[in-house]
Every structure is written in C-alpha cells, then in structure tokens.
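TOKENISE THE FOLD
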Amino acid sequence: MKNIKAISLGLLPLLSGMAMGQNVQKQPNLVVIFCDDLGYGDIGCFGNPTIKTPNIDRMASEGMKLTQFYVGAAVSTPSRSALLTGRLPVRNGMYGERNHVLFPDSKAGLGQDEITMAKVLKENGYATACVGKWHLGAFSPYLPTDHGFDSYFGIPYSNDMGTGRMGRAQNYPPTPLLENNLRIESNPDQGEITRRYTEKAVGFIKDQKAGKPFFLYFAHTFPHVPLYTNDRFRGTSKRGLYGDVVEEIDWSVGLVLKTLEECGLDENTLVIFTSDNGPWLTQKENGGTAGSLRDGKGTWWEGGFRVPAIARMPGKIPASLSSEIMTSMDIMPTFLALAGIALPKGVALDGVDQRGLLFERQASARDEVFYWWGSDLMAVRKGAWKLYFKTIYDMYLPSMKIVDCEVPELYNLETDISERFNKSAAQPQIVAQLVEVANRHKQAMVIKAPVCDLREEFKQ
C-alpha cells in the first residue's frame, strides 16, 4: 500500500465549494451512525446469512464498503473517544488499567482540554447534534453539550449499567435518559429507545433542511446487551432477539437515508455507518459474530478492532468495495478537510485525511494500525502483516488470560484473515521491521493519565 498524503488535483473539482469552503451552503452535511458491539459478520452485506439488513446493504451498494476499517479500541469508552477526537485513547486519557470503560460512579470523563470534531465544526458554523449512547462522562462538564454538540438526547453510558442489569451494578441508579444536560426519565422503556433515537435524529435533519450545514452523531445503544426491541420487530429475524435488534437498527438507517432524500440533502451528505468495537462473544446467542475474523470485543485479535463500515455520498463516493486500511480516527481530519476547516493547532492527531480513498479510490493514506489495551501496545499492523507482542486466550473464562509472547506472533492478514498461521519463524525480517515500527510509535507517544480508573462509591 502506498502512503499517499496529498489529495489529487482530480478530486478538487468534485469537491468545489465544499472542501474549499467557497459557499457555506455547499459545505457537506456529515453523519456518523455508530452501533454498539455490532460485529464484522452481523449484517447482510458483510456476509450474515440470516439477519436481514436491506437498508444497510443498500448503503453498501450505493457507497463504499470498507472491509479493513478499524476502531481505536476494542471496548466502548476508549473507542468513542478515538472517533470524536481523532486521537488514540492513550493520548486523550479515555482508558484505564483496571477499568477499561467509564461507569456511573466514574469521577470524570473526556476532558475540556480535548478537542472533538463536534467542537471544531460548531465553531465553524455547523449545527451539531448527538443522539444515543455517549459513554464519555455522565455529568457536566463531560456531556455532549460540553464538547461541541448543540443538543443531546440519549443514555449516557452502556445500558447494562443500571440497577440489576445482568446481575451487576446493584448500587447504581436506573438507566437514565438525558435531554441536553437534564435527566428526563429514570428508567426508559428500552424496547422503544431505537425508535425514539431515530425520531430525534430525523427531526434534527428536518430542522436543518434549509439551514446551515450539520453534523449528526447517531450512536445506537444496541446491539449491546441487554437486548430490547418491540412488537414491530420481535420475532422477525431468524437469528432470534439479537437479529431482531439489528433489523430494527437497519430500519433506523433506512429512515435516516429516506429523510435525507426527502429533504433534498442526500447528495450533499456524507454518511458513515460503523460500530464501536467487535461483537461481545461471551454473551453467546445474545452477542454477535465477527464472521471470518478471530475473536471479538475486548481482544486485539482482528474481531475486536476490525468492524463493518460503509461510507455513502451519492454522486461523489463511487459505488465500490475497498480493502484499503482506514480507521475511525481518520473520520475527524477527513470531515474537517471536506468542510474546508483547518485542523486544530498544536494537537497531535492519530487520524489522517482519507478524501483520496473515499472519493477517488486512491490507496489509503495509512498502512499502519496500532492495537492498544490500556497503556500497553499489544500489536501492530503494517501493510499485510500484523505482529503480536501479547495475545489473549481463554477469553470465555471469567477472567481472560493475557499472555506475553516469548517470540512475537506474526500473521499475514491478506492471506490469513482468521489469524490461524503464525509466520514469525519463517519471516524474521518482517518481525524485525514491525518491532521497529512499534518502538518508533511508542517512543513518539505522549501517554495521558487514565481517566477510567478514577471512581468512587456511587451516591444516590
């Protein structure tokens, strides 16, 4: 893969008045639909044989299906922080050594010293809205409205963190529903939450029909467990309750796309659909599947970090299949470049501008991926090769087993997508090259103190 840093001249006419900012009305609208624990193999266009996802499949047929798309972490809080800041969690502090995500008793959240894409877009004339799961801080000054969103409607953390959920969190309050900074319900009917989220998202789009450009971050609560749906979708899938929940998300995606079309905004709106991490395999039939990828959520095997992704912008992104590498951290610099907005000064980003990949099918602007767990670099990918310094086994036990590799394990992800054949003995030069890449990356990394470990006894 080539490392292309500059956008070609051929793309400039395509984005005239949009990326160059000549006319604010032509700046693109930007939408991210972010699922929770949706696996690589959980939708039709990524190979699921029983879950019907016609609207997501239509997105893929009309846009770019990205088969090598990675998130910044294999669990929720750090992954979401990576998406919104364009920075690895070890840079922005949204990770933990003991607690890998935030909880209702967490003392803090995403700091005000971190710059989100919502904040930059809002400062440059965009209307911004966050709908759905946040999980970057449950109270001010860590809520969406403290980080550049004009409005927020959703559940501030995972839906298993309320009273008695899955037999855990017994001292926590019922799962709250917030509107902006106010708790409007203490125990919402989660069977209707996808519908309510969708109504809010659609309403926001309709409100912007004739106004300024907008950024919508639509972060679904599901298919994270516990799973909920309603009479409209219950029993409709051959995959049981999990499939029912995913099919309701597909309905939601269809309504968002339909609204964009009806409002005449379709061709000027970039929509990216993806997931925060891989499937929660320990939940068995209530969890998803990573398809041909190895393992899932909470691991740095491919099934934990590689997720389904689709980018759609009719008339601008060609209908295509791409096996180029892209990450969720690339979304922020790509969005800002499309809007003609400069990157924040003095901020070290881990994302890169991927306009060339998305709009002209050029090679990716990156050929490296770094797999962090807490403040440890567990694996690195460069080109086709992925090298493990630590691996994870027995993840189905109550306490997963992390193993230091006496000799780093090496896999060719182009020929061995399921990571079955360790090639380290046969490829010592590749091992040495990736060790050097990892060392260079770690030496340049400024690690921020972990926020997720800051907890106290919850007080009602």
Q: What stands out?
A: The two ends are 54 Å apart (CA to CA).
